[in-house]
Specification:
single chain; mainly beta; 252 residues; four-stranded antiparallel beta sheet
Amino acid sequence: DNNGKHKILRFVDDHEIDGIFGHEIYDLSSNSWRVLDDITPNFDMPYQRGASLKGNTYFMAKEKIVYEDDGEYPAVLPDNLLCFDFTKESFGQFLPLPFHHYPHDAGALSSLRDEKLAALYQSEHRSEVEIWVTTMIEPNAVLWIPFLKVDMEPHYGFDFMFRCDGGSFFIDEEKKVAVVIHFDESEVTRHEDAAYIIGDNGYVKKVHIGEAVPHIPGALNFSHFQNCCPLVTSCSYVPSLVQINQTALQDS
């Protein structure tokens, strides 16, 4: 906050029981964890990373699925936007996303200069990538406008899809481009982290970042890389290039 107080939100989960079942707050001023007893998880949250904006953090989440006693499976609901308010230490109401995002679709959130929220979407059945930005964003209200749409099929085929479980991206409003970080499984004997620069008029450029490191050393099974997409922090803070150059000169 404005007084320099920082907090960390932690989700306590168990995949074998029922997903998320608790929340804790770490307060850096007191150097301790506190259990948030007042929060009853009424949502399911996929494993996309959240985005921090104006002192709050936003996530993609859906209403918690309640299975019927007769064994009937309820309809799968699309994700919503959900804000955690660090001042109130509670979640707000579900807010609309500008698209219908389902479990196997690609989706990610990113903040822009701590002023706007951006959302990326790609259906598992389509090669088009959409990016939307907010014109207004508060813990319990949001408005969206389209920012960019690019078809990846002419460049990488219809089957190309960004990661649905952990990618990140950022945008440049002035140049109207986005940089999407992706885990590339195209190589047979190794896997790569790559940045895809996408822009107006179907512009797409791939930049190799480096060889990805599995969380199981020596493994080539793709599942062993699934949580290894590199995280690119959203552009909430934009330092002066002069400061960067001065630091580089001093270090050299």
